[in-house]
């Protein structure tokens, strides 16, 4: 069973594509006339020139908006597609879930005629800069240490790639891990946590002490005093990276 058949039931509620990140992804795709989205989930960030979505979870496919590109139930490691099937292939916030990263990237390179765009994060930067995992939920950081894909490894598998930081806006509409960096109360909402695999897979028991400490710090004003520098920022770089490779 695909892992997002368990994790993904409420994905569409908390994970709406953010327009500023969409603009950056679409710019990275350049003038590609055809795009395939691998690990497509519910279809976030798909440009209008998307010809196919590849996604292993039927629960995620079922949440794709009406009128989206067709979707096939398959994994990155075995793409049911011919060589050079589209100008560009994108894979957003998905490579950390793949069971065989090298096989998946080889498949992207086989299927992309010109460009590959991958959104992921640098775990060393993330665990150091994101206050939630640094100060409250180290168990979640430890879980991500075990699955995050080192950027250098990814770039090497791609045969070289440009890297762009993806800054997270303070009002980001896509509720991924650090999306609520300036809205700390959101992390106390179980539905928000359910839409973030780092928390869903770490498990509520392990998170409970850190969430209790965050609850206290928000109630006493300690969090706001301690993080006052953050409150003046509109965007933050906590390690999300776009890798752009020409094949
Ligand atoms: C965090 S979601 C991201 C979805 C979408 N790309 C987005 O940005 O909203 C990760 C997705 O990767 C998919 N996935 C997991 N393992 C995969 C694999 N081996 N090949 C392709 N996709 C996979 C999951 O089913 C899930 O839909």
Would you give an account of this structure?
Residues 38-114 form the Methyltransferase type domain. With 247 residues, the protein is an alpha/beta fold. It has one domain: Rossmann fold. Helix content is 40%, strand content 17%. It has 14 helices and nine strands. The protein is globular and about 60 Å long. The model has no long low-confidence stretch (mean pLDDT 97). The chain binds S-adenosylmethionine (SAM). Residues 2, 4, 15, 38-41, 44-45, 55-57, 60, 75-77, 92-94, 97-99, 197 line the site of S-adenosylmethionine.
Tell me the overall shape: globular
Report the span from N to C terminus.
32 Å
CATH homologous superfamily - what is it? Vaccinia Virus protein VP39
CATH topology: Rossmann fold
Strand proportion, as a percent range, falls in 15-25%
Instruction: Average the pLDDT over all residues and give the rounded result.
Output: 97
Q: Which ligands, by name, code or SMILES, are bound?
A: S-adenosylmethionine
Tally the helices. 14
* String of helices and strands: HHHEEHEEHEHHHHEEHHHHHEE
Radius of gyration over all CA atoms, rounded: 18 Å
| CATH class label | Alpha Beta
Number of domains: 1
Q: What's this model, at a glance?
A:
With about 250 residues, this protein is α/β, with parallel strands linked by helices.
């Amino acid at each position: 069973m695909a892992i997002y058949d368990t994790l993904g039931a409420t994905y569409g509620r908390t994970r709406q594509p953010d327009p500023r990140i969409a603009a950056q992804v679409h710019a990275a795709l350049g003038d590609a006339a055809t795009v395939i989205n691998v690990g497509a989930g519910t279809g976030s960030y798909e440009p209008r020139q998307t010809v196919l979505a590849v996604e292993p979870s039927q629960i995620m496919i079922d949440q794709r908006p009406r009128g989206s590109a067709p979707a096939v139930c398959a994994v990155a490691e075995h793409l049911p597609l011919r060589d050079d099937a589209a100008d560009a292939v994108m894979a957003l916030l998905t490579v950390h879930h793949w069971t065989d990263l090298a096989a998946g990237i080889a498949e992207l390179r086989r299927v992309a005629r010109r460009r590959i765009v991958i959104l992921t994060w640098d775990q060393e930067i993330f665990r150091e800069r994101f206050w939630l995992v640094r100060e409250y939920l180290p168990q979640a950081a430890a879980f991500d240490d075990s699955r995050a894909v080192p950027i250098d490894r990814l770039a090497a598998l791609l045969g070289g790639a440009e890297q762009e930081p993806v800054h997270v806006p303070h009002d980001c509409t896509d509720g991924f891990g650090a999306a609520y960096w300036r809205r700390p109360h959101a992390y106390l909402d179980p539905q928000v946590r359910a839409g973030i695999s780092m928390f869903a897979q770490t498990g509520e028991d392990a998170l409970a002490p850190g969430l209790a400490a965050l609850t206290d710090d928000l109630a006493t004003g300690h969090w706001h005093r301690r993080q006052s520098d953050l409150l003046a920022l509109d965007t933050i770089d906590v390690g999300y990276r776009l890798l752009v490779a020409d094949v």
